[in-house]
């Protein structure tokens, strides 16, 4: 929707609470309000509303996206991620070196890391496929020259700790390692965005 801006909310909660959260969310809809967690959001100027629940094992993500019309020539531009979710993955673009494109690799890593963190926040062992994908992608990512080479040895060592914790099912160690990986990513991206 060109010329609009969005407001997004994401709640991660145990799966058994997802439907109750949805009920609470819409309890005041007749009064023109949504209740997202503890925040009351007016719907007066909202031009579009999307509510979705995605289940990841025993945890769920409740996502609310509201779109508002542009307020004038200085209004926020439309975000680039307006493409509808089809549930189908896009074909992997591979460079001539045989490696995936760096941008696609980072997107996939962001997605799998998010699934991992969601599970860990719910004190659950993350999906083994997401863990394996993230570890494999991390190994590929640290082979790209000029994208933060100085950070790669420490990152690879932390990925090793994360993989070892995942292999033993140690949620506390996985959580600590995921937090360290997130800090490293932010530090690297602040210098090599």
Measure the end-to-end span.
Answer: 28 Å
Return the CATH topology of the largest domain: Four Helix Bundle (Hemerythrin (Met), subunit A)
**Class of secondary structure makeup:** alpha+beta
User: What is the correct CATH architecture of the largest domain?
Assistant: Up-down Bundle
User: Based on DSSP secondary structure assignment, what is the total number of beta strands?
Assistant: 5
The biggest beta sheet reads: 3 strands, antiparallel
Q: Strand sequence of the main sheet, in spatial order?
A: 1-5-4
**What's the overall geometry?**
globular
Average residue pLDDT: 80
β-sheet strand percentage: 15-25%
Which radius of gyration do the C-alpha atoms yield? 20 Å
Region (Disordered): 73-102
Protein name: GAK system XXXCH domain-containing protein
Biased composition (Polar residues): 86-99
Organism: Solidesulfovibrio aerotolerans
What key attributes describe this structure?
193 residues; 5 helices; two-stranded antiparallel sheet; XXXCH_dom_fam; Four Helix Bundle (Hemerythrin (Met), subunit A); alpha+beta; GAK system XXXCH domain-containing protein; three-stranded antiparallel beta sheet
Can you offer a commentary on this structure?
It contains 5 helices and 5 strands, in the order E-H-E-E-E-E-H-H-H-H. It folds into 2 domains: 4-69, no CATH class; 73-191, Four Helix Bundle (Hemerythrin (Met), subunit A) (Up-down Bundle). It has a 3-stranded antiparallel sheet, sandwiched between helices. Strands 2-3 form a two-stranded antiparallel sheet. 42% of the residues lie in helices and 20% in strands. The model is unreliable at 72-94 (pLDDT under 50). By secondary structure, the protein is of the alpha+beta class.
């Amino acid at each position: 929707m060109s010329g609009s801006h969005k407001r997004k909310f994401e709640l991660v909660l145990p799966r058994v609470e997802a439907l109750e959260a949805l009920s609470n969310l819409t309890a005041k809809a007749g009064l023109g309000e949504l209740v997202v967690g503890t925040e009351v959001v007016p719907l007066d100027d909202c031009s579009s509303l999307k509510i979705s629940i995605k289940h990841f094992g025993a945890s769920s993500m409740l996502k609310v996206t509201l779109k508002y019309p542009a307020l004038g020539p200085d209004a926020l531009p439309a975000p680039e991620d307006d493409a509808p979710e089809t549930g189908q993955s896009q074909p992997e673009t591979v460079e001539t070196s045989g490696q995936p494109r760096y941008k696609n690799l980072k997107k996939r890593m962001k997605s799998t890391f998010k699934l991992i963190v969601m599970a860990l926040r719910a004190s659950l062992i993350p999906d083994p496929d997401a863990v394996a994908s993230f570890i494999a992608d991390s190994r590929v990512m640290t082979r790209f020259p000029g994208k933060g080479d100085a950070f790669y040895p420490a990152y690879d060592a932390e990925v090793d700790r994360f993989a070892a914790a995942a292999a033993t099912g140690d949620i506390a160690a996985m959580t600590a390692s995921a937090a360290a990986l997130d800090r490293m990513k932010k530090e690297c991206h602040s210098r090599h965005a």
